[in-house]
Specification:
Layout: H1 2-9, E1 20-24, E2 27-30, E3 34-40, E4 48-54, E5 62-63, E6 74-76, E7 82-88, E8 95-101, E9 109-114, E10 119-124, E11 140-142, E12 147-152, E13 166-174, E14 177-185, E15 191-197, E16 206-212, E17 215-217, E18 220-222, E19 225-226, E20 230-235, E21 242-248, E22 253-258, E23 267-274, E24 287-291, E25 298-301, E26 309-317, E27 328-333
Parallel strand pairs: 2-9, 11-20
Antiparallel strand pairs: 1-3, 3-7, 4-5, 4-6, 4-8, 8-9, 10-12, 12-15, 13-14, 13-16, 16-19, 16-20, 17-18, 21-22, 22-25, 23-24, 23-26, 26-27
Protein name: Fibronectin type III domain-containing protein
Keywords: Carbohydrate metabolism, Glycosidase, Hydrolase, Polysaccharide degradation, Signal
InterPro entries: FN3_dom, FN3_sf, Ig-like_fold
């Protein structure tokens, strides 16, 4: 082994520098991105060099083909043994590369390439008073409410951004078949949005995917990439109650409201806060009572104190946990406690 090491790493003539190799960028590149290779073969004189690679430290070295011709990738050194050339980064991670010649080879460079990535999120343009429940699928939209599909190609800018890269939004039309739904380009932050959609067109519902198109720019040649499928489905939001009233009694409040005809309604939720200076009640933080009778039009609150301000909000809720966009609210003060005596 000592003789082999000497052949590869000891200069063949006095005064020649030690073999070296630097690859820029040396990490965090996509497969196909242009990288620059500089170094010295460790021997003076112009000579032919070529690239070799292997999958691990014990595997045999194999010559690397030229991506243009398919033949062995070769270049020439300068008289001092130095070299500089460009070559696309491999798509595979933790692959060893070196520059070889008839008299030796450079130390190996380990590539730490990054995989392409696409994250799709459904973004509500006008969020309701109560967010959609986390138990719903991430691609859930509300019928009639605007949304867009937000596509992140750089994992929140933790990966390299390719601004201007063409992106195609595709919709599944059948088993193994897709159609172009929309087109766009990657922004400077690696993000783009498709829409605005309104949740009323059946064509906006279904299974979608994103295709990052081939990227060729300044020597980069990054191949296309597909996201995992993303399901978009529409669910209705229940209609709010109307004509909410709160009638104070000596020891209670009677809430009454009118219900619309609405098949989406599954239950009624009452939120409450106490005190004149308290903020308005909101769900689910201040939920006080749930009425599972979807047809209920009254509720009597007997847990009250005299001369006290009570604030109520009445929501309708669907079976999927979607709350009405805005509740009906009312504020009332209970009567003072009646005095006794002769």
């Amino acid at each position: 082994m000592a003789v082999v090491a000497a052949l590869f790493f000891v200069p063949s003539s006095s005064g020649a520098p030690a073999p070296s190799l630097t690859v820029t960028p040396g990490a965090n590149s996509y497969g196909g991105q242009q990288t620059t290779w500089t170094g010295n073969i460790g021997s003076t004189g112009e000579r032919r060099i070529w690239l070799q690679r292997r999958g691990n430290q014990t595997a045999a070295w194999a010559d690397v083909p030229d991506p243009q011709t398919g033949n062995r990738f070769t270049r020439m050194t300068n008289r001092d043994g130095s070299f500089r050339f460009t070559f696309p980064a491999p798509a595979m991670n933790f692959v060893y590369f070196r520059v070889a010649s008839g008299v030796g080879a450079t130390p190996a460079h380990v590539f730490k390439s990054i995989h392409q990535d696409v994250d799709i999120q459904l973004f509500e343009h006008d969020a309701a008073d109560v967010p959609l429940p986390q138990t719903l699928a991430v691609g859930t939209a509300v019928v009639g409410e605007p949304f867009s599909l937000r596509v992140d190609t750089a994992a929140n800018q933790t990966k390299k951004v390719l601004p201007g890269r063409a992106v195609t939004l595709q919709r599944r039309t059948g088993p193994g078949t897709w159609e172009v739904f929309a087109r766009g380009t990657v922004g400077q932050n690696g993000v783009l949005s498709f829409g605005q959609y309104d949740g009323t067109n059946p064509a906006q519902e279904g299974t979608f995917r994103v295709r990052l198109e081939n990227w060729a720019n300044n020597g980069d040649k990054v191949g296309w990439f597909l996201s995992t499928p993303f399901d978009v489905r529409f669910l209705p939001r229940p209609e709010p109650v109307s004509s909410l009233q709160a009638t104070p009694r000596a020891t209670s409040f009677v809430l009454a409201w009118t219900l619309p005809v609405d098949a989406a309604r599954a239950r009624i939720v009452i939120a409450r806060r106490i005190g004149q200076n308290s903020p308005v009640p909101t769900a689910p933080e201040h939920e006080y009572q749930t009425l599972n009778d979807r047809t209920a039009t009254t509720f009597t609150d007997t847990d009250v104190q005299p001369s006290t301000t009570y604030k109520y909000a009445v929501y309708t809720v669907s079976a999927q946990g979607i709350y009405t966009r805005l509740p009906q609210r009312v504020t009332r003060v209970t009567p003072a406690e009646s005095g006794g005596g002769n």
